[in-house]
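Incident review: delayed structure delivery

Summary: a single-chain prediction request sat in the queue longer than the usual turnaround. Root cause was a stuck worker, restarted by the on-call engineer. No data loss occurred. The affected request and its eventual output are reproduced below so the record is complete for anyone auditing the incident later.

Affected input:
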Amino acid sequence: MFKDEPAGSGTDKRLDDAGLPLANREEADINPDLLRREGFASEAEYLAYLATLGRDIPFEAYVVETVEVSEGPVLEARLRELREELENLRARLHVIRDQAATVVSENVRWADASAHAQLGDRPWLKLAGAMAAAFVLARGVRRLPLGTVTTTALPLVAAALNRKLAKA
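Output delivered after worker restart:
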């Protein structure tokens, strides 16, 4: 059993400095001080790194995606499509706003017509009067001594209910 090998395992699993398993055996043979996983700022830095490893690997092998000159018209066409789609979405939004304004105005018109049908002329004045009357009535009821009235009336109400139930 080796130092980096887990007990009871028949496979050679070596870990890097971060505790992650190494990708392949070739990386395991490299000096850990030379391992670099975060990328390079420039091609010169990459070439300097390769010189420290003692290998000559072409830079193009590690470039993920290159933008070719022929992609320019493709990108312009895609940009044009996106602009057209944006204009279509703006037009739809304008139509939706107009429809929402129409719906709101029709609802207000319907509520006004309904109030006139139920309460006649000046329905909002009549509603305000009814609310004021309810407020004044509630204030008056609060001032009544309902505790003593309820205490006195409760046995009378219970007796009346018993008589009704006895007749039924």
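Verification: The helical segments are 25-28, 43-53, 71-119, 123-143, 146-167.
Action items: add queue-age alerting; document worker restart procedure.
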